[in-house]
Structures are given as structure tokens and as C-alpha cells.
Amino acid sequence: MDHEIELKFLIAPESSNAILARLEGREAVRQLDATYFDTVDHALRKAGFGLRIRDGENGRKQTLKSASSGGVFARGEWENAVAGPEPDRELLAKTPAAQVINGDALAPVFATNVRRVTRLVERDGATIEAALDQGELLADDRRAAVSELELELKAGAPRVLFDLARDLAAHAPLRLSLVSKAERGYALALGEPEGPRAEASLKPDATTGEALQALGRAALDRLCAAAEALRARPGPERVHRLRVAARRFRALLSTFKALAGDPAALHVKAELKWLADALGAARGLDVFIADVWRPAVERQTAQEPSEDPGEAVQDEARALAAFGKALLAAQTEAYAKADSAVDSARFRALAIDAAAWLEAGAWTTDARLKKRREKPAAAFAAKALDKRRRRIRKDGRDLISLSPEDRHHLRIRGKKLRYAVEDLGGLFPDHPKRLAGFVEATKDLQDALGLLNDLAGREALAREVALSCEDPEAAFAAGRLTAGGAEHEAELLADAQGAYVSFVEAKRFW
Fold this sequence. Notes:
eight-stranded antiparallel barrel, CHAD domain, Hypothetical Protein Pfu-838710-001, alpha+beta
């Protein structure tokens, strides 16, 4: 088995010449036509394998690739020359996929038609193969364009790979992607959305360093996939998904701060905060429109029709319409800001910097961190979860009397605990019911505090939007829609107190 470390970037086709101009080295051009195979129930895909037969100038080859086998971008690979167009069962029998296939028939799922230009780059004592792929994926009558750059480290230090990526990114937009051609092909064939398919799976005997790399890769995968989805078709759910991905990645670095305290990690955390903040206005307006303004319009529309609705009803309808116009203008501006952030060089640099830190950061080699890296992940997780749980239990004791700002901080701590539980829960397989109950209790507390936080921010948001359009009718509607907050707050506080009690009573699973 060979061991590869590679980065893949999505690129605009018109950027290919600019990229090749920065890559000096021996060139080869090949046409790579491949067919991917799987069982009827896609057992190989479910187990994290991709199996293809590829025709090229060096003949026909069968390649089996596994999911990550160590590093952030490391994958297992088994490649052999074959004679026929169908998979060689004898060769597969010598790989880990044999038990997955278990004698089942293999059939084509999709195909690729790609022209590949490769350059073998020698840089700072390292050898890197750069491959520029242009072509398409084919599944029955469906097509999807392929325009990618892959950088594979053949020899040398991993940091050189990332240095080259940064150099190229300074001359052409490179969008890091952790979604393989195989996954894109399956998504095309099955009509699924592209993106990460599963959370990281941690083995109970994993070390803390192994857990950080596995979870970090999953976090980066979510981040890049959510950004691509938002770029392709902006919308409330996609804004929310990317914002959660940024916050969850940042929370992961906080959980592992014993290993993530160097300047590079702190820079990644700061950039993740910048991204989440850049999406904040769009998310806030989406929630306000969905939870406050739209229901008010629906209630107003649902009133019994009348020949003479009266001046007050007409005034309310005009005010709601004026405020809706102002909300739409503010939402449009907020989405422009979100789109600009996702499409910026700053975001692309964030993705590369995060990948570089996960794979080749100082924490991976610093002798002073060796004991922390090699500590059993389960022991590390138990201590981290205990600390977060104790802090929430302490700070929430007098929840009713907390200020809105203190409740907001408590909600953030609850959110971080929930993310940590979702990430680290797999290290404790002995108590699945306790795990499920703890997750539910943590989520309920977070949601209850989230509603209070939304309520606290609604009046300020509505006032800001109304003032931006300088329309008295919009200001009137904003005031009407956010009135009665104190009474509603009392109800939400009671719910939050109940959620806190349930959280305190939830049994530990670790």
C-alpha cells in the first residue's frame, strides 16, 4: 500500500494557465477515462472506499482508495495493472475491501472523462506532483464539470506542500475541497447534494493527537462543503450551515487548546470568528423574518375580508409592507456581505491555513507536547467534558436573575459543550442511552437560551432596520412587532430554568 498526502482545490477553468505558469517541472499530459464500481447497495462507499478502473497511456489500472489512513489528507491506496474492463476480484481479495464486498457483484456507478496535465515540482527539498484536471463526471444522462488542481507530496516535508499552495493561491483563486471525485460522482449518480457524508469516527483507543486530526479534518470538510453550497445557491439554511461549521470548528480548537495554543492555531480561530461574524447579519435577519415578520403578515392576511377593513387595519398593512421592504433591503445587503466573505481571498487563505496547521502545525512535532499528543483521547475527553459541564452547572444556578449578556455567555458555553459531546461521544460506546439523553438535555438548554437571546436582540435589530429606511410606517411596524417582550421573556425564562434542571439531572456518559 502506498501512502499519499494531497490537497485538492476547485478552480475556475480560466485560471488553469495562471496556475501552470507558476509550476515549473517536468510535464506530462494524459487522458484519464475511468469507471467507478460498487455493489448494488453501495457497500464500498458506505465503508469509505472508492474503486475504479482507469484507462490511460500506461495501460489499464485498477485502483482502490480508502478514507483517511493517518494524516489529515492521507489516504490508503491499492493500485494494480489489470487486463479487462471489469474489477479483478483476486486483486481485491488482497485488500481490506474484500470483507466489504463479501462476494457480491460489482456494477458501474458513474464514469469520469478527464484531461490531466501534471508537473513534477522540486521545491525546498520536496517533490510535489501537481495535477490539473479538466473534464466531466458522467452518470447516465447527467453531467457535472470537473476543474481541479491536486497537489500530492511525493517526498519531503508537508509544510512545503502548503507553501506551494499559498504561492499558487496568491495568483489564482484556489478553493480547498475535501470532496473526492468519487464522492462527487456518487452524488451525481444518486441525485444527492455534494458535501461531507458522515462525522469523524473515533476509535476508543485513539490518542488525543489522532482525535484532533480526525475531528479537525471533519470540521474543515464541513466548512469547505458549506461554503461551496452557499456560493452555488445562497439561502437561509446554507448561511446557517456555514456559520455553524465555522463556530463548531472554532469550538473544537478551544476544546483542544492544550494542543492548539500556538500562533498559527490562534490565527485560524480568529479567522473563523471573522467568518462567523460576516454571516451574522444575514442569519439574524433570516431568523427575524421567519419567526417574527412573516407570521405577522400571515396573521394579517388571514383576517376575515371586509368591504371596509377600516383605517387602522389599512395602516397596519401599509406599515408591515413598508417594514418588509426595509427588511428585504437589509437582508440583501447582509447576503452581499456573506457572499463577499465566502468568495474572498481571506476565506480561501483560512482554509489553507487550517489544513496546514492540522497536518503540519507545530503541535504535530513539538517535543514539549508529546505527552499531550499521545495521551488517550478518552481520558482527555472525560476531563474536557467534566470541565465544561461543571462550568455550566455553576453559572446557571441563578439563571432567572442573569442579565441578557450573562445568559448569552451561558448559551455559548452550552453550545461548546454540545459540540464537544457530538465530537467526542464516540470515545465512550458503553452508555449509548446516557449519551443520547445528555445530548438532548444539552440541546434543550442551548435552544431555550437561544430563544431568550433572539428575543433580547429583536428590538435592536428591528430598530436598526427601520431607521435605515427613514420611513415612519416601518418604524411603527417595528415597534408593534417587538412589543410585549417582557411578558414573553418571563415565559422563556421559565422554560430555560426547566431545561437547566433537566441538564443538571442528566447522567454523565463518560
